[in-house]
Amino acid sequence: GQAQFYVDNVGSASSTGVEFEVAGRPYAGVDVFAAVGFTHARFGTDTSSGGIDISDHKIPNTPAFTTAFGAQYSREVPMGGRAYGRIDVATTGAFQYDEANTARQDAYTLANLRGGWRGRRVTVEAWMQNAFDTRYVPLAFAFPNGQSGFLAEPGRPRTFGLTLGVGF
């Protein structure tokens, strides 16, 4: 059928990488973290896909780097429980959508915010994902059989909400 996709063995490939992480508590109630990762993922020499030479092309959906960092502040409040606020920021490096490297997603950064109060049995939290409403496409597939274009899934837009939790 026209809407069928398949996985094809294209030959050799290699992927190497490294990741560094650090976390700490510089002051009472302040937690920080950071991570960075690097990946080198390429198809091997004399490798083809669908009759096209893809030697040394980047492997699809594999960013060359990723980063994440953030901080959380929390403290006890006079009425009981703990109030807290948190920010997480993550960057995904540019990556290709297909093995021919004809289309790609540029690097993008997402910021998430969260704050609330946690008591002994009750939690109230406000949150926002993708706080700056970054536009990105984390997943796309080339149409098969030489048809032009890609079938893509857009990234989640800015979302926010309020969560109420009760523990027993």
Question: Which key features would you list for this structure?
Answer:
single chain, seven-stranded antiparallel β-sheet, 0% helix, mainly beta, 57% strand
Structure commentary:
- The protein is an all-beta fold.
- 0% of the residues lie in helices and 57% in strands.
- The protein is built from no helices and 13 strands.
- A 7-stranded antiparallel β-sheet has the order 1-2-5-6-9-10-13, with no helix packed on it.
- A hairpin with a 7-residue loop joins strand 7 and strand 8.
- The termini are far apart.
- The model has no long low-confidence stretch (mean pLDDT 91).
Count of DSSP H/I helices: 0
Helix-strand makeup class: mainly beta
Mean pLDDT: 91
- Poorly predicted spans: none
Widest sheet: strand order?
Answer: 1-2-5-6-9-10-13
Describe the largest sheet: 7 strands, antiparallel
Using the alpha-carbon principal axes, give the shape.
Answer: elongated
Distance between the termini: 52 Å
Question: Helicity, in percent?
Answer: under 10%
Number of strands: 13
The fraction of residues in strands falls at over 45%
